[in-house]
Design brief:
The protein is an alpha/beta fold. The protein has 6 helices and 6 strands. Helix 2 links the parallel strand 2 and strand 3. Helix 3 packs across helix 4.
Length: 164
């Protein structure tokens, strides 16, 4: 299965959100499965684009109904909590809700059972913390390519060329 993570900041700029919507649609039409987390901003933009093409998606939620999302992929497995705890530098300070968010980030990159990595990650993040950074740590460990639109302004054409 061809899968990618489409994730990022809730504060992603509008012009980038429009690109992510378009990229989500194009990649869905090319047979890619979107993996994301149902958050506002970048996650939602990828999901909207994917839905426009009736594409396949795996939206991993930290709990049922997170952010009004109806995905049935909620309640991360214990293995995701263990993995997240090993990667997150301040794990012991996090409350249960934050731990659930970080555990689901593992699934966004590695799949429901943490054994099926995505081919690449497309995101927007300033690298100043948060869930996207957690997912990027995992991607870096697994040597998965990362395309961060905060660090480089890709055109849609460039992005598709890089990923196909």
């Amino acid at each position: 299965m061809n899968a990618y993570s489409g994730i990022g900041s809730r504060k992603t700029p509008e012009d980038i959100l429009m690109k992510f919507d378009r990229i989500g649609k194009i990649l869905a039409n090319k047979g890619f499965t979107l993996r994301s987390g149902g958050a506002d901003g970048a996650d939602s933009a990828f999901e909207v684009g994917c839905d426009k093409a009736n594409g396949k998606k795996e939206i991993f939620l930290p709990w049922k109904g997170f952010n009004g999302n109806t995905s049935l992929l909620f309640d991360p497995p214990e293995e995701a909590f263990v993995m997240a705890g090993k990667i997150h530098p301040g794990w012991h300070h996090l409350k249960q809700g934050a731990r659930r968010l970080h555990a689901r980030n593992c699934q966004q990159v590695l799949g429901i059972n943490l054994d099926n990595p995505v081919q690449f990650v497309i995101c927007y993040t300033k690298l100043d913390g948060g869930g996207t950074l957690q997912a990027l740590r995992i991607a870096q460990q697994k040597k998965i390519p990362i395309y961060n639109f905060y660090l480089q302004k890709y055109s849609i054409k460039e992005m598709i060329k890089h990923t196909l």
